[in-house]
Amino acid sequence: MSQLKYCQGPKCHTYDTKDRKKGPKDNKRNETRRRSSMYYGKGNFCSLGCYNDWAEVFSDLAIDHFGRITQPKVLTKDNAWRKSYDWNRNGSDRHYVYNYLTDERIPLTEDQYSNDDTIIDAQGRLTTREFYTPTM
Ligand SMILES: [Zn+2]
After folding, report:
1. 12-32 pLDDT, tens per residue?
2. What is the distance in A from the centroid of ligand 1 to the CA of 49?
3. Which has the closest alpha carbon to 30: 54, 12, 49?
4. Rounded to two decimals, what is the model's pTM?
């Protein structure tokens, strides 16, 4: 049940390609691309060119609407946590949470690494330091 939708690029119809051509010989026209899935800009644009055309026209409006960054965003040791692992060819990879400002590592089980999305919140903060320490 895929629905066709139009590319949101404001100049999509001006690019002269075979697939944009529509209509009979005496009434030829180029139309905006219409597809069930597109790969750019969260599925809204048929090409990077159309995505850039949109950004050229609407970036300032969108940023002013949703909030322009006027202060630097800051990464500190408190929000610098990421899940990571050391690959091991023998299959016993070591999984951990890693703070890339302090180099601190706290071990995780592979299951915690793969399935527990509560260990680090969306802002990169560690939610708890109480993890089960895997025995290896
Ligand atoms: Zn397009």
Report:
1. 999 999 999 999 999 999 999
2. 7
3. 12
4. 0.65
